[in-house]
Each structure stands twice: as C-alpha cells, then as structure tokens.
Amino acid sequence: MELNNENIKRVLSKNIKDLRISSNLTQENLAELSDISVNFLKDIESNRSGPSLKTLINICNSLSVTPNELLKEFFQNSFNNSESLTQQINLLNNYQKEAIYTLIQFFRNNNM
Questions:
Q1: What topology does CATH give the domain 1-77?
Q2: Would you list the domain boundaries of the chain?
Q3: What are the φ/ψ torsions at residue 50 (nearest 5 degrees)?
Q4: Is the pTM of this model over 0.70?
C-alpha cells in the first residue's frame, strides 16, 4: 500500500471504527473517553478528518491499543504475534485478564 496522507487517513479511520466496535463502545463512549466531540469522532471514522497526534494517543489509550496497531498496514513485519496477543488480551474484561495472568503464572512456574 502506498504511503500517502489519504491512505493513512483511510486505514486509520477504518481501524479506529473496527476496534471501537469490537470493544463494544459506541461513538459517544469513545469520544468521551478520548476527550473529543462525537461529531469529530464521526468525521475521523468516516475519513473526513484526521486526528492530531494528541487525539490519536487519546484514542489509542481509550481503545487500549498502540498506534502501531492502528497503522499496522504500513509496517512490514513489525506487527508481530506478541502485539496481536496484547491487542486480544486488552479486549478482555478484568476477570478474563486475571484468568490469563493465572495461566501464564502456572506455565512459568511449571516450566512447561
């Protein structure tokens, strides 16, 4: 994919929307968490506007993802399995995260 401003905005808008939906957040929820207006989030998700770096960081924090995850299409081989696993774990609720942590501790302690 060619690296230009339009492609970056298009990929970013799609990934933000997809992650928002997979996180079961409404546009209102994500806008509030990211300290932006709902209309601005709608503009971002529909590729009419691009976020500033500060807004991008706020959105990443609200979605519990890194900017790399939102722009992964532009990084050859840099989006590895550990980032994918981290993203998947971040989508879990606290109870599920604790269960994953307990499993990791079990395997580490038993050298399996």
A1: 434 Repressor (Amino-terminal Domain) (1.10.260)
A2: 1-77, 80-112
A3: -115, 145
A4: no
